Fold these 2 entries.
Entry 1:
Amino acid sequence: AQDQVLKMATTTSTDNTGLLDYLAPFFKADTNIELQWVAVGTGKALELGKNCDVDVLLVHAPDSEIEYVKAGYGVDRKQLMFNDFVIIGPKKNPAGIGGSSVAEALKVIESKKAKFASRGDNSGTHKKELILWENSGIEIPDKEAWYIQTGQGMINTINIAAERDAYTMTDRGTFIKYEANWKGDPPLDILVEGDAMLRNQYSVLAVNPKRCENVKYDLATKFSDWMTSAKAQKLVGDFKLLEKQLFIPNASE
Amino acid sequence: MGYISEGFISALHLLSSGNVETYSAVFTTLKASSLSMSGSLLIGIPLGFLLGYFEFPAKRHARAVVDTLLALPTVVVGLLVYAFISRRGPLGDFGLLFTVPGIAVAQMVLVIPIVISLTATAIEGLDRRLRLNLLTLGARGKQIALTSLSEARYAVLAAAVTAYGRAISEVGISMMIGGNIKWHTRTITTAIALETGKGQFAMGIALGLVLIFLAFAVNWALSVLKRKTD
Amino acid sequence: MGYISEGFISALHLLSSGNVETYSAVFTTLKASSLSMSGSLLIGIPLGFLLGYFEFPAKRHARAVVDTLLALPTVVVGLLVYAFISRRGPLGDFGLLFTVPGIAVAQMVLVIPIVISLTATAIEGLDRRLRLNLLTLGARGKQIALTSLSEARYAVLAAAVTAYGRAISEVGISMMIGGNIKWHTRTITTAIALETGKGQFAMGIALGLVLIFLAFAVNWALSVLKRKTD
Amino acid sequence: MNKKDCIYRLYDIRQAYGGRDVLDIPEICIEKGKSIGLSGPNGSGKSTMLRIMAFLETPLSGEVYFNEKKVNGDEPALRNQVTLLLQEPFLLKRTVFDNVAYGLKIRGISENLKDRVNHALRSVGLYPEEFAHRRWYELSGGEAQRVCLASRLVLRPKVLMLDEPTASVDRRSAVMMKEAIASIRQSYETTLFIASHDLIWLNQVTDIVFRMYEGRIVGSGTENVISGPWHPDKDGLWARELGDGQKIIVTQPEKDTSVAILDPTSIIISLEKPAEISAQNILQGKILQMNMSSDPEKVELHIQVARFSFTCIITRFAAEELNALPGLDIWVIFKATSVSWQ
Amino acid sequence: MNKKDCIYRLYDIRQAYGGRDVLDIPEICIEKGKSIGLSGPNGSGKSTMLRIMAFLETPLSGEVYFNEKKVNGDEPALRNQVTLLLQEPFLLKRTVFDNVAYGLKIRGISENLKDRVNHALRSVGLYPEEFAHRRWYELSGGEAQRVCLASRLVLRPKVLMLDEPTASVDRRSAVMMKEAIASIRQSYETTLFIASHDLIWLNQVTDIVFRMYEGRIVGSGTENVISGPWHPDKDGLWARELGDGQKIIVTQPEKDTSVAILDPTSIIISLEKPAEISAQNILQGKILQMNMSSDPEKVELHIQVARFSFTCIITRFAAEELNALPGLDIWVIFKATSVSWQ
Ligand SMILES: Nc1ncnc2c1ncn2[C@@H]1O[C@H](COP(=O)(O)OP(=O)(O)OP(=O)(O)O)[C@@H](O)[C@H]1O
Ligand SMILES: Nc1ncnc2c1ncn2[C@@H]1O[C@H](COP(=O)(O)OP(=O)(O)OP(=O)(O)O)[C@@H](O)[C@H]1O
Ligand SMILES: [Mg+2]
Ligand SMILES: [Mg+2]
């Protein structure tokens, strides 16, 4: 029989870390379905789903996802795994932040007008950052000179932070890659980690087959079933980038 | 600086070791650019001839419009074409999204204005005596067009080379319409964007060198051809 | 399809309401492209003249190299220039990274090959009699160059227009070198990329229209100028 | 004019460039198979007239009939029967052979292509073995001109128009061109139009030569054309200064810029200045050149008077009587009334 | 040759294009202020020689001395003193005025610019009021040619070279050009080189005319140039067929392609076919044209024999005796030994 093809839109982090390259062959072996994915920002991934151009979504912006399902664009949202965000900054740490409280760190940054690089691209990471400012009781410093809105992907934003001696927030996976690019001696270090607010939840959604007649809902279901299966969850837990675990499976939560 | 030299070494390695991912991207790039170039030249050269050869009242304005289209950013072309070929767009049924022919169609939108504008300039630059001579020798319609283009062959070739450079090096369209799907629609440029996005600058440079190598092969072949028709 | 009409309306709105973010991006775009175009024409036209006018043994190869550079992807140019002007690069002390002049420098790398290649083609397309006539009238060096360029003025203008289209529409360089920093180095194209990445396709189209509008204004002005020199 | 067998009839043709009138032909009929010459000073409209008759240019007003059919939108088809050798030679960027073969190829003629091309080259004095493979720029000025002519001759057109075909062509080639033209006329009944400043050559290849002046046909043959400005002289006559103190006296013109036509046969030549004579014009000049005339019983003299060159035709007998020879100082005599006005 | 006051001295100049030899000048000296004509068939190397002397082209071998200094890398500076009107007219894409002013402007001459340009235009018969503002394409062929000439005259160069200046120029303008050339010679002691097929005009504006043939200077003045192929005839003499059964008989040439030179004064004209005469060549021909000769006591006849045109110079007295007139059938007589070889 001919290979069946499932089209997925996903965020760049799952692709950039190599997780999907690692999972796809197992999925194929188990179900005979070929997974093809488009790695874009979460916002764009959701838009592609809206236009029925993909069958399934793998994204990490829980609030938007819930709204998306409510609006009838997506169905069967299931959570899969999470990793965490960290706040990084120059080795010299000019503002002197540290520890595990995000709110404290952000307040110090704001009061000292220390440079902070924001992705400013409506990505899952950016949305998370905005929530962190809000939860820390700080207005989004849109027009402040020290608040650098890059409108770019994570790696580029980290690079800009490094060039500008700025702090920034990143997912751990990207930071591990960044560290590796610098052969373990990057100009930026992790300064804040471990806060419960820093959890980064990934979920899978099928595109609503009632809106989009062409989508392969059956394949999408097979994919989300497989991803939440014990086998796949173990694979996710075993996935390592540069010897470090990146994602913690939590489909059962 | 380090990653430039690193990139050089990686590029040699990628090509010599027959890296399958690289070769897949090379073939996708070649497929998309050959398709889009054939289409663009077939459509753009005749239109460019018409724009350059004939005098008509709105000529100046037509020219300004075509020249403006040279400034179409690839992302915008990507978006526009996406709006048409997305499932919910008017041409959704052809299933062009995330395919190589889809990339080619969108690249044609990008590249046809270049071919038209530079072909028109080439034709306008021809000796004024050519037109009268062709007419009085009895040439008509297509014959005039073909002979004029052959008289302006170097400038038309330059139009094609410029268009080719634009098509092969663009990334926005391949990204948006192709989707950068590994083994299927990943071109060299989207692969570069991916590697750069990952912070793998040396790999980005390496792939860039592969692309340049490809372009050089094409241009060198053309320059040999050009000498033959001299 | 909806995006397109929505984008149209947004574009009008952005321009008429004096949206500050849009105008900031427009000015950054104009600043970067004016800088890079002046530089590119100043460097590219003389080099293009030399390449087109003189016969030398390696001419064919020089030409193939320049034509190959037309296929430089913007990301690769961005990476290369980044390697030089990053703080750890050899030119790091000038502090060009994430500045508009930095964007302009990198755009020049992208655009100079276009200017050289098309100017050379323009010069090669000139009447063979021109060269001898200028020599026998006593013209030398710069005078020959200036008169030849003025004889080929339309084709040289076409080179400039093509280069301008490329510079104003590129995104990879502005992204990489400019950093797309809001209020500072965000150009229209990086803003489009950002909006598109967010899934705000209508906004992307709207900004694209703003860019096209800008390009049209420039080309229309040129076409008026062209008629004057006719 | 005779209406039958006119291959061309022009009515009221006018042309203007940038607001300047450059052509004005009220009515003319050209018979099939004739060979027509056009002469006249630079800018008198010869090339313009040829371009219009070759359907390369549409006149501002007026009608062109070709083979008794009004030309109206069917120029492209007619251009297959009419070909014009333009004044400025121009070759396609290909070999000499391909240049000459071009017209045949676009007509779809492939039979005997090589023979026809070689024959055409030979007829303009170029050996095919030596020239056929040359590229367009590997030719001297006169050689290029002759390749252009060959590319027209090879077409065996119904109407062949040549604009200055002998400019920069050597004397022997001019003789060959004359023969080639005669041969194509004889074989294919080609109608010919030839514009040239080489009047002697032109007379040899044409049946009649139209003299053009400021866009008009002011006469035919070897008439002397005397342009103004005219100004009133004594006795109600008008005069035109010749610059050396001498002047031409004529009857009253319409305008002071009118053009006077003087028949070459109405001029009398004398070795002495005649004492008592009624003719108003007695001008001193020198014989520059003597040529054969179309009438074998006559000869044609070119006489320089001041900067002006008069053509006059006298009988062989008169020439012998005068012992006319180039360099001879003589007197040119004609009546004020012998000019006609254009 | 005299070494003093040579503005040009050429030694052993050779040029070849694509392997074909096109010029071969062993040694020549041109005196300052002379006016030199070049004539010869198409492709004989006239334009090539002019281009080399105008420093536009470097010969394959040989040396050019200009003002007794060897030309070697200083061509750009010398080009300010030497200007060549190229054979094919070409104008810059600007107005007539700007075209004529161009050379002055690049020399930095702005004084009296307008007067000088207008004067140059007038000297070639173009009224500045009518033509100065016209654009390059708003001209007839002859007008464009004359604008090109004006753009050279205006420079008042030390050396003025003109390649076919009268091609497609009307008769009256040719007379004006003659005067303009005379005036520039007189005022600025300009040395002139003029290539032309219009031999009569050329004789009037030059001191000496070099005849060129296949890249060589084969003679000067009005010599008849008879090219081969020669083949052996009876009595150890050689012959060249003329195509109509007649042939030219000469003494043995070096090669069968050698070129014979026949002095026009060594030809005898007769009305009857002479019965007993030692001369080997007795050819039947017809007088085509009679012209003034540079010697006022002589006249120049152009006689057609088969396709060949002989120039012969006879005294006025002889011409009167013969009653020579254009159209007259005569016999051309010369000895086999009167040719010299090139
Ligand atoms: N494109 C043009 N625009 C404006 N005026 C023109 C154009 N072409 C020709 N003329 C003018 O039209 C008139 C007629 O030109 P035409 O070429 O017919 O003359 P001609 O008799 O062929 O002259 P020549 O002997 O110099 O070839 C001239 O006064 C010329 O200046
Ligand atoms: N660029 C070239 N390449 C090859 N051969 C050439 C080139 N230019 C001229 N020739 C050849 O060189 C020879 C001399 O040409 P040149 O132009 O000097 O002749 P010319 O005496 O000026 O002839 P014309 O009377 O036709 O102007 C000719 O045989 C011609 O075919
Ligand atoms: Mg003309
Ligand atoms: Mg020549």
Entry 2:
Amino acid sequence: MPRKIVQRFQVPFLQVLDEKGKVDPKLDPGLPDEDLVRLYEAMILAREADQRMLRLQRQGRIGTFGPATGQEAASVGPALAMGPRDWLVPSFREMGAMLMRGIPLSTILLYWGGWEEGNVFPEEARTLPIAVILASQVPHAVGLAYAERLRGEDAAVVAFFGDGSTSEGDFHEALNFAAVWKAPVVFVCQNNQWAISTPFEKQTASETIAQKAIAYGMPGIRVDGNDPLATYVAVRDALARARAGEGPTLVEALTYRLMMHTTADDPTRYRSDEQVKPWQRRDPLVRTRLLLEKRKLWDDEREAELRARCKETIDEAVKAYETWKPPRPDVPFDRVYATPPAELEAQRKEFLASLPGADAGKGVD
Amino acid sequence: MPRKIVQRFQVPFLQVLDEKGKVDPKLDPGLPDEDLVRLYEAMILAREADQRMLRLQRQGRIGTFGPATGQEAASVGPALAMGPRDWLVPSFREMGAMLMRGIPLSTILLYWGGWEEGNVFPEEARTLPIAVILASQVPHAVGLAYAERLRGEDAAVVAFFGDGSTSEGDFHEALNFAAVWKAPVVFVCQNNQWAISTPFEKQTASETIAQKAIAYGMPGIRVDGNDPLATYVAVRDALARARAGEGPTLVEALTYRLMMHTTADDPTRYRSDEQVKPWQRRDPLVRTRLLLEKRKLWDDEREAELRARCKETIDEAVKAYETWKPPRPDVPFDRVYATPPAELEAQRKEFLASLPGADAGKGVD
Amino acid sequence: MARMTMVQAINLALHQEMERDDSVLVLGQDVGVNEGVFRVTAGLLAKFGEPRVIDTPLAESAIVGTAIGMALGGLRPVAEIQFSGFALLALGQLEGNAARYRSRTCGQRGVPLVVRMPYGGGVRALEHHSESREAIFAHVPGLKVVIPSTPRTARALLAAAIRDPDPVIFMEPKKSYRAFREEVPEEPETMEIGRARIAREGNDLAVVSWGAMLRPTLAAVEQVEEARGVSIRVIDLLTISPLDRETLVRAVKETGRMVVVQEAPLSFGPASEIIATVNDEALLWLEAPVKRIASWDVNTPYFAREEAFFPGVERIRKGIEETLDF
Amino acid sequence: MARMTMVQAINLALHQEMERDDSVLVLGQDVGVNEGVFRVTAGLLAKFGEPRVIDTPLAESAIVGTAIGMALGGLRPVAEIQFSGFALLALGQLEGNAARYRSRTCGQRGVPLVVRMPYGGGVRALEHHSESREAIFAHVPGLKVVIPSTPRTARALLAAAIRDPDPVIFMEPKKSYRAFREEVPEEPETMEIGRARIAREGNDLAVVSWGAMLRPTLAAVEQVEEARGVSIRVIDLLTISPLDRETLVRAVKETGRMVVVQEAPLSFGPASEIIATVNDEALLWLEAPVKRIASWDVNTPYFAREEAFFPGVERIRKGIEETLDF
Ligand SMILES: Cc1ncc(C[n+]2csc(CCOP(=O)(O)OP(=O)(O)O)c2C)c(N)n1
Ligand SMILES: Cc1ncc(C[n+]2csc(CCOP(=O)(O)OP(=O)(O)O)c2C)c(N)n1
Ligand SMILES: [Mg+2]
Ligand SMILES: [Mg+2]
């Protein structure tokens, strides 16, 4: 039955750096050498930290931890595109970006070690804490962007979330608000193709996450999420749009979760090594190193030096984490409200009295 | 910056019957005369009932009421397309469809009169109660469709909601589930371009509601919602798809709310008569009558007869409503759980004792 | 001083706070052009303009969720939920984020957010428009829950809520929106959140109520005082959480008898916490069980039947007399 | 009879109920191929196949919302919310629809729905994974709230919940999932919802607890009994709503003293309703205030500090002794 077509939409895909380390010259953002090196170093640090944290978890030195191995390019490319006054609103798999924003690894360790102090970031990092209720951080990003504009700031906001998180109502409501408000915000979906055991095709019947942007009248783009130049370019352009008052953009970084969902997860229950293999070949670290080598920016010696430096950084962070002295045990009572009401002060006393042995009574006074 | 286009989408628009009463011959569904007449009669009844209910509300004989004047075609076309075993899941502005499903007007009056008994429908009507929490009924429709299919039934579900309701998380989550499950459900959005005082362009930055279907990988179509043949055809086709196991469809019926949001609303606060006028000219009743006249199915005499019949139907419904005897006052206690727990029975006794005068003590025993 | 309705008084607070502090902004469904479905936000859009008065799309979780983001970004948003029944759609954001940002960040980031919502029955509204669910919010550490009872308390408490560094759920008894007037001073006024008010002095019994229940409570108290020659203290709770336990305990210690009038359903409601407080700190002073007068444990009936389900003067009066006679 | 963990016992109930009644189906995140993040749904997909075991997309409101639709369509869905912290995202559907469909339709349509969710602390999990929010659900008329404490009660109550014609919030204390084993009969078994269980007889004091609090409670009780030669009754509540007031009141009348141990924060929690019940019906039998031992009114701290914030054996023991000595 013939019907008149009244609207047409298209979704672009962007890859700049291919698996062999070749840059498409038409798309090359022309990053200075030190930025290329920075991207690579940040990815290596994130990867090394992942590996170490997995060990720390197995040793019981931190709690449940969600590694991002294989997804580093989706994290560091956007971070490189951000300006110092922009805000990062992470989900929970953005260690790469958080480290690039200047958050100490020891702080990140505190987080996974079960301390709220792991959410206290340097103000200059302009980063909100890790969000555990999936997609609940996305409206925060929109409100934050609205506030920055209202206060006359030039800052934009980059919000991260996973493919599974796009199924939540909060994702939808937030993107709709952002587009109506033309809020200066960039939505970055790390589509790692899994939400714990749920594969992308059971998560949504849409072929891409990028096409979901059409529902909000905003541009959407899918990029190779294992290509740090593509994630960089897409977010750089989206930030420029945002700052120009043209509104939000949805960037889908197509990547793959190479390891377990978290240390509590056993991926062999729901996927085979065969499925994972092709994605190991697309490792963002490999292609970035190839690029650096082509540009004569890298060799085995520099690699060895970097790995050593990472190890040192991580060793120091672990040490700082493990020698960190927690504040007095009753601090949670200070933090419910700016000023604890009388009943909470009474409870604090009871709490302190209830502590075993040496801690008993050790508190605010 | 050149990017490879990897996806293309289009959104169709459908109008069958234009404002002058002309049917596009290529699109004519070839409905038998009695169906054409049925559509018209249903719309007139809905319109007349609207008018009467506005008066009843002003007289304090029912409570707040939301008229659907001008939107009748978006309600009756889909209802005509439904089979007897299909389910109707209404929002709150679908009186036309509900009447066509065989729900007595007196029952609908009970609803707006503030009685739960206004939600007790004949089983054959296969209709869920009016939903007040916007969009909350949409996931119910999806689950119901899933249940019908699991139980081996051939029935599909038609769910209604407004343009404003598409901003709710429940809309998003439900459409996503439906598409993943290929559930036999048809989503009908009555886009009347207002959500109380919020115009469509402040509701969403998307140009159409139909394009939101793309986010779920499901087909979306915009139809002229003041054209009962277009709404009929679109829903008929979508139901066929649903029954064939091809999954859900989103149908946007573009219409206009000619009157107040509800009797509690004063639309002059947020829109001018000028804005409304063009839409009065697109009144679905007018073009449908023109069509009937062209087909020699209608004349002034039949019109007068119909109006008289509607008046009679409505008079009778109002009488039935106003002479309806409420059950004993404590029935709410019967309805919280299938079997009231002991404490509720105790409360029932207290409640009955608390009633003033004649009612006191009149209860279950 | 002007005699105002509660709607006018709340509106006054919004005007004055937005003037005082340009980080205050208002957002919600129909709050701008339409000035709110109850006209509570009248004049704000005209005076303060669009970026500070936002007609949002229709999504409660996003209204609260974006407002949290605004608060984190240095603003002081006042979000309106059109009817409290729809606020539960935003409970994920309220419990999961607004209430926790301060503790999550060890005090680095607070959420100075007010969520206003008309609540409660008595205006012949549709389903989901008549509930009282303050107990749900009150059980969440990190939220404050405020319920004014009169125009003056509404204005002063809203101003205080807007200045509060923490999230405040501000529930407005819509039955009282236009039911009566009260003198409200023109100059800005605040009241301390967390403090109950003695609405009437008395020594033979204390009645605790809040929101729209205050008026039938006062009417019942007058009847009993007149009929019996007793003196009854009326505590207007004003803040549900944190609870003013001191005022409650003192009342039991001084009168020996207490009645709590609550519009919410009986079980697991605020009255239970009040009783628990009395149990903790004044059990030995009790001369009779604390009497709860509440709605029944049924879903609020549609409006044709709702009236009989809310506590009314007659039930309150009987409850007071029973407690006096115990 | 086999000695089972709670996870195995719940799994047994699911298997047997799905076999017994083919309108029973299971849906939720990761419940199929992965067999649940705690393996509670092990073997279901293999045995019953895809249409009856659904791995859903990631959206709690839709899990509950579509399950309501399934229930209206004649099925008996058992929906899993992966952690109870995320259940509040579905409270709109639970309070607004599941709880009301029966009253909304005058009994024409009920919603036989079970929403299972692991809750509570003690497993060193991330933020939002450790809360106890049963009071919120319990305040909603139309919902039933069940919390088993042992493998056998979990199995029998879940079977009863699945057969119940009304919506049941089934909260599973995840700390007890694998902490201990209990004999569970092979043959299907149900227990009545709304009935508490006497976990230990005694006449000098009664302790009420539920869920994961039962074990530290029993441990504390043993210590006190041994040290003092008293006999202490332990009431395992099992159903939070509707509350088994009779068993509670009888306990106060027979022992004169009561302690309530609650994992949730103190204020506006279930213990308050228990105290209110005692106040209503057994005040004169009380020889001491009812003692509440609960978590503090703070957001559940992250796992490095959480332990000290939940009631433990020591606090419970002291609370019992204080109440005995009052
Ligand atoms: C609202 C909510 N529901 C469920 C969970 C439990 N959960 C944690 S991570 C996860 C999967 C997330 O998938 P995705 O969004 O794709 O992110 P990824 O883990 O792949 O990075 C789930 C279900 C949660 N944290 N929040
Ligand atoms: C969840 C929710 N939020 C707010 C309301 C109050 N409300 C009732 S109707 C309405 C506007 C609805 O707009 P739309 O969905 O376009 O339907 P229409 O009224 O135009 O038919 C609003 C905001 C509600 N009923 N439910
Ligand atoms: Mg993922
Ligand atoms: Mg509309």
